[in-house]
Design brief:
Blueprint (H helix, E strand, L loop, with lengths): L2 E6 L6 H15 L2 E5 L6 H7 L1 E6 L2 E15 L5 E7 L4 E7 L6 E5 L19 H9 L4
Parallel strand pairs: 1-3
Antiparallel strand pairs: 1-7, 2-5, 3-4, 4-5, 4-6
C-alpha cells in the first residue's frame, strides 16, 4: 500500500504562487523543505513512493514527490520534522477537500489522478480546458 500526505498550502492562492514561494525557499536553503511539527509514522513508505498533495483554496490541485523526511530540533527546543520535496509540481485533477489542521495521510485509493499532458507537446492543457473536461466527466 502506498501512502501520501495532504497539506493545506496556507496563504497560497494559486499553484503559481506556491511555485514562487518554493523557489524562494530553495534559494535560501538549497532545497525545497516543508517544516511541520509531527513526524509521520509511515516515514519509510512516504520516502519510497509518497507525494505531498497541496490543497489550495479548498481543492487538491498539485502534488510533489517526497524525497526525504528528517527529524529536527527547532530553535525553541521543540521537536519537528522537515520534508524535502522534489521541485516538480505535478497538477492533479482538482478535488474538493474540507479544511483541517496539520497534515493527513492520503491513501492510494483516495488520491486524485494526475492531469493528462498534451501527448504531442508534453505540455499541460490550459486550466479552462481541464475544468471543462472535469465538468463533462471525461477525466
Amino acid at each position: 500500500m502506498s501512502y501520501h500526505l495532504k497539506k493545506i498550502a496556507v496563504g497560497i492562492e494559486t499553484v503559481e504562487r506556491l511555485s514562487i514561494r518554493q523557489e524562494m525557499i530553495k534559494e535560501s536553503y538549497g532545497t525545497i523543505l516543508h517544516t511541520t511539527r509531527n513526524m509521520p509514522k509511515k516515514r519509510e513508505d512516504l520516502i519510497k513512493t509518497g507525494s505531498i498533495f497541496w490543497i489550495i483554496k479548498r481543492n487538491v490541485l498539485v502534488r510533489q514527490k517526497i524525497i526525504d523526511i528528517v527529524s529536527v530540533i527547532r530553535s525553541d527546543g521543540s521537536k519537528g520534522c522537515e520534508i524535502e520535496l522534489n521541485k516538480n509540481l505535478i497538477k492533479v485533477i482538482p478535488t474538493p477537500m474540507k479544511p483541517f489542521q496539520g497534515w493527513r495521510y492520503y491513501l492510494e485509493e483516495d488520491i486524485p489522478r494526475d492531469l493528462n499532458l498534451n501527448k504531442e507537446t508534453g505540455e499541460d492543457l490550459p486550466d479552462n480546458i481541464n475544468s471543462e473536461l472535469i465538468k463533462l466527466g471525461l477525466y
